[in-house]
Amino acid sequence: MKVTEDHSLFTLDDGVVEVVKVSDLRVGDYVLVADVGTSEHTHYSTAVLRRVSDIRFIGVVDGYVYDLSVEPYENYVANNVVVHNSTFGFGLEHIADGIFHLWLDNVEDVKEVRRYLIIKKMRMTNHYRGAYKVDVVPGKGLILTKLQV
Question: Per the confidence metrics, is the pTM higher than 0.70?
Answer without folding.
Answer: no
